[in-house]
Amino acid sequence: MNAVNYGNGVPGSQGSSRLSAPTRRERLRTSTLTEIKDEARRLLVTGGPDAISLRAIAREMGMTAPAIYRYFDSLDALVEALAGDLYIELSEVVSAAKHDAGDDPVAQIMAMARAFREWSVAHPAEFALILGSPLPGIVAFQESCDDEHHPGVEFGRPFMETINALWLREQYPTPPRSMMEERLAAHLEPLRAGHGEEVPIEVAWAFLSGWSRLYGLVSMEVFHHLRWAVSDPGALFEMELHSFVGQFTGQSDKS
């Protein structure tokens, strides 16, 4: 973390923070960028991903189409920026759920999984943009997930840290390490780029296995692909969630 410079302590000194304060032009640009992304999200919610266009946003904001290109040089760049904001929002929801769950890692996992589902069901258009069929801007966003500060990595970090904490507390059942080393280890480079080379392969497997199961159910619920089977997808999600955490505790009745 960078240190904050509060000045030299001399009375009347303004310190370097005053020099780094944003100018009026910079504040206006930041405000306009936020307004553009807010309008893009509104179009997403009301019309789906295909409704987002720079021309439509410019029209709604009273800008000329060429003017908006001073802020985003392409639609893909705007979609990528919006995706980052949505992942940050989702990360904050998940992290808050983890904090409120107390110190028990199993309770934290269940709280985070439930928070993820609740946000996704409440925001189906946003879910579709960042976790559905990817638009070109989303493809670029996903392909850049090799930085620990990437919003997508930040979203996954609370889950990874908690599953790792469980492993350190008591090694839970996993496939044999030799099997995972042979079949999985060589393919974990993208995950390790964001979460660190030191992630045990058992933790990586548990993380990916759990994400596949829980994301799969949430995705089917959001896109209404479970209506043929269950009247309450939440009940099925809870069963699967209890089954998942059962591998850490040896039981599946954790509430």
TrEMBL record:
Entry keyword Calcium: no
Biased composition of type Polar residues is found at 11-20
What PROSITE patterns is this protein classified in? Answer: HTH_TETR_2
Q: Does the keyword Amino-acid biosynthesis apply?
A: no
Keywords attached to this Swiss-Prot or TrEMBL record, sorted alphabetically, are:
DNA-binding, Transcription, Transcription regulation
- DNA-binding region (UniProt annotation): 53-72
Q: Which domain of life is it from?
A: Bacteria
Pfam families named among the record's database cross-references: TetR_C_33 (PF13305), TetR_N (PF00440)
Query: Residue ranges of region Disordered?
Result: 1-27
Which GO molecular-function terms appear in the entry? DNA-binding transcription factor activity; transcription cis-regulatory region binding
The name this protein goes by in its record: Regulatory protein, tetR family
